[in-house]
Amino acid sequence: MVSTLRPFSYVLPHMGVAVAILIYAIIQIQHFTPAFQEVDPDGYLFLAKRMAHLEPLAAEDDPFIYQSHVWIETPEGKVLPKFSPGYPFLMAIFYRIGGDDAMYMVSPVMGGLALLGSYLLFRLWMSSFAAALGVWALAINPMPCISSGYLLSHAANTCAIVWGMYFLWKWMRGHPGKHTGILAGLLLGFALTIRPTSTLLAAVVLVAVASRWWQNRGAANIRWQIGILIGYYAIFPLILIIYNWSILGNPFTTGYGLSREQNAFTLEFFRRNLHFMVGGLNTTALYLVFPIGLAGMLLVGPLRERLMRILWFLPITIIYTSYYWAFAGMPYLRFTICLFPVVVGSAFLLLDKTLDAKSGA
After folding, report:
1. 20: number of Cβ within 10 Å
2. Residue 343 in contact with residue 294, Cβ under 8 Å?
3. pTM of the model
4. Whether 349 contacts 301, CB under 8 Å
């Protein structure tokens, strides 16, 4: 009887995830609207179309035409949006394939891929059944669902991070696949071209590198494996340096620097915003899941993996708690959507291990 049920128990979580992604897709298709109601998408569309048509990204135009916070003026007196080029690059690819409407499909597609990547990552941490429940918790969460249906960069950023973490975890654990280090480096590196704060995830990469080196310090090719991961990751910071230098006049000045937002993170704002962040994560963003997720990060798994999860969550949380633009509600909390997978995954990891311990007692 047990042998008869075993294939079913193996297939059932996969089926559950497929249904969750299907429901997500139906929601996105039903509510697909190739339009927007705020100024930020203006900037993404501007950069995407200029990339698609191989035009200069900065336009020779009167900067006083543009009065929103999206636009900056370069040292040469040209105008372009302040955003990083990664998300517009994806939009440009979709534009070349399907035209204007296709650009609005980037976020829905990336959101669906993020759910699939979350399942694969969670399976490295816990049982398939618990991993499937974790995907459902993400799929029915209103914030990722809404963000994935809108022309902002959070879904694409989350997708790159989740898949990057999946390959990084496999690489750190010594998976025999040849390309895990390459893919981890490429995806996590690309994430920082979508949202600059994803640069903070370099701390997770460093922990993985240190752990892999310590475990395999006698291996002949360990330096080569580490060098491959770091080398592919480093491609994208170099691209951003070239982008900043060629367009903004300084390798370390971003568009946010010219808009003066790069320095808009202070301890004073941190103290002011802490209750917005903690209260929002505990209610609006991750109701019931947030405290369990924090406990899972701190208590479950090998020390190196606990540290990786904490470093995925904590630095980005701190930096956005220190941000000047903060208030209660989803518009502010959307900056933390890239953290939802690690919080939800840690919560279901804790529940899974707790149930295992009780069943084995």
Report:
1. 23
2. yes
3. 0.94
4. yes
